[in-house]
Amino acid sequence: MTSAADFRPGKPGIRKNPLQLTFTPTAQLWISHPGERALYGKGRPSYWAGNGTLPRVNQYKGFATVFYDIAPEHPVDFTHLYLPTMEFYLCRVQGPWVFAQEGDAYCAVYCSAGLTAQRSANAEREFIAPGRRCVWLVRAAQTDEFPSFAAFITAMLAAPLERWTPSGLPAALRTRYTECCAAAGTNAFR
């Protein structure tokens, strides 16, 4: 997982992707705010290339937070996750969570606005989160931390989330780093 922490949040990002998680050349994911609504438009930023509004990103090891606060005048009122499910060994969607496994690596992606899997031209690869303000959580892990994909999913779903309002940011979800599923015997978001 790579990220650009606090890289121009709130500004347009023509070809900027401040967070990406790559398992293989084709099994990868990123989160963005489309610069335009046209799927095959010519705008810069476009639907997939760049961000209409750059988020505030923070990362610590295999855990990242992505905060979006999109201006009311921007024509696109959603963010989205690119995760081509057909490129991963296993994928599971559960409410606002998407889980994926490729080889001995796992990922969990959560969005405070909820997620809707697309059924259009981007079926099996795009998940849309409605609204202008949301928080995405991304956790990457491997089998040395969690013995199985099922154990990883259980730990992520059991990790407590609480509402908070940090100065200058929208009401968001925060993960308590020090608490997690006791059965996992580890801090899931370390």
Give a verbal description of the structure:
The two termini are 14 Å apart. The chain has one helix spanning 149-158; strands spanning 2-3, 19-22, 28-32, 56-60, 63-69, 78-82, 90-94, 97-102, 105-111, 116-117, 126-130, 133-142, 161-164, 172-175. A 6-stranded antiparallel beta sheet has the order 1-2-3-6-11-10, with no helix packed on it. A 6-stranded antiparallel beta sheet has the order 4-5-12-9-8-7, with helices on one face. The model is unreliable at 164-190 (pLDDT under 50). The longest helix has 10 residues, at 149-158. It has 1 helix and 14 strands. A hairpin with a 2-residue loop joins strand 7 (90-94) and strand 8 (97-102). With 190 residues, the chain is mainly beta.
Characteristics of this structure?
disordered C terminus, 1 helix, mainly beta, 6-stranded antiparallel sheet, 190 residues
Secondary structure blueprint with pairings:
Blueprint: E1 2-3, E2 19-22, E3 28-32, E4 56-60, E5 63-69, E6 78-82, E7 90-94, E8 97-102, E9 105-111, E10 116-117, E11 126-130, E12 133-142, H1 149-158, E13 161-164, E14 172-175
Antiparallel strand pairs: 1-2, 2-3, 3-6, 4-5, 5-12, 6-11, 7-8, 8-9, 9-12, 10-11, 13-14
- Rg from C-alpha positions? 16 Å
Dominant shape: globular
Distance between the termini: 14 Å
Count of beta strands: 14
Overall helicity: under 10%
Number of helices: 1
Task: Give the structure's gist in a few sentences.
With 190 residues, the chain is mostly beta strands.
